[in-house]
Amino acid sequence: MGKVKSGMTKNDIFEKQSWKPGNVLSPVPVVLVSCGGVSDWKPNIITIAWTGSVCSDPPMLSISVRPERYSYDIIKNSEEFVVNVPSRSQVRAVDWCGMVSGRNVDKFEGAGLTPSESLKVQCPVIRECPINIECRVRDSMHLGTHTMFVAEVVAVQIISSLIDAKGRFRLEKAGLLAYGLGQYFSLGAVVGRFGCSVQKRKRKPRR
Ligand SMILES: Cc1cc2nc3c(=O)[nH]c(=O)nc-3n(C[C@H](O)[C@H](O)[C@H](O)COP(=O)(O)O)c2cc1C
């Protein structure tokens, strides 16, 4: 660690320290990926933090999985999985599914979660998670410790209580969870909307 000297004054509130390169990008979503339930693979759940959207059309996302995970062979062979977005009330299940392996335990039973039917893929969604994103693997890339699966989103299920009377998806009510540097965070208030920086403010009518 060393101080970054350029352009600094003694009491600089933006003073920085140089850290070794690592995965400090935070926060990231933390999700429960369900897989299996096809061929001889029993249904399983793996906690994944290395995930993200990678393309809008077709809608695609990626998950990065270490080859030694039990879920790796399932996803590699079945070429499908479901990204289940948990809420903060499920933080213990999220952590636990990342601590034990499906080689030794039934994680659905152990975490008190219910495998439920998917719309387009064969592996189950997790019934209790408010958002289920069904995916089919389109590509994989071995990066180092992890293999990244790039997958197309083929169906989405959203719990009805998050959809308002006008058909809008009220994401802010989902009690979302995030992860960063070994800690789970609960996401708070909405502080802006897409395009708010370029929107003209509505003037208050003069009295
Ligand atoms: C918060 C958290 C995030 C994790 N993220 C990943 C990840 O992105 N990729 C990965 O391969 N393992 C990740 N893990 C570890 C796996 O979830 C863990 O090794 C799990 O027990 C593997 O289950 P399986 O053997 O049933 O597949 C994470 C664990 C936790 C607790």
Describe this structure in words.
The protein has a single domain, classed as Pnp Oxidase, Chain A (Roll), CATH 2.30.110.10. The mean pLDDT is 94. The strands form four sheets. It has a seven-stranded antiparallel beta sheet with strand order 5-4-8-11-12-7-6. A three-stranded antiparallel beta sheet has the order 3-13-14, with no helix packed on it. The protein has a two-stranded antiparallel ribbon with strand order 1-2. It has 207 residues and is mainly β. It has helices at 70-78, 91-96, 107-111; strands at 2-3, 17-18, 28-29, 31-35, 44-48, 51-55, 60-65, 80-85, 115-116, 125-126, 131-142, 147-158, 177-180, 183-186. The longest helix has 9 residues, at 70-78. It is built from three helices and 14 strands. 28% of the residues are buried. It binds flavin mononucleotide.
Notable traits:
14 strands, 3-stranded antiparallel sheet, Pnp Oxidase, Chain A, binds flavin mononucleotide, 207 residues
The CATH topology is given as: Pnp Oxidase, Chain A
By secondary-structure content and strand pairing, the structural class works out as mainly beta
Number of strands: 14
| Low-pLDDT segments | none
Give the helix tally. 3
Largest sheet: 7 strands, antiparallel
Mean pLDDT: 94
Integer-rounded radius of gyration: 20 Å
Distance between the termini: 59 Å
**Proportion of helical residues:** under 10%
DSSP strand content: 25-35%
Question: Secondary-structure map with pairings?
Answer:
Layout: E1 2-3, E2 17-18, E3 28-29, E4 31-35, E5 44-48, E6 51-55, E7 60-65, H1 70-78, E8 80-85, H2 91-96, H3 107-111, E9 115-116, E10 125-126, E11 131-142, E12 147-158, E13 177-180, E14 183-186
Antiparallel strand pairs: 1-2, 3-13, 4-5, 4-8, 6-7, 7-12, 8-11, 9-10, 11-12, 13-14
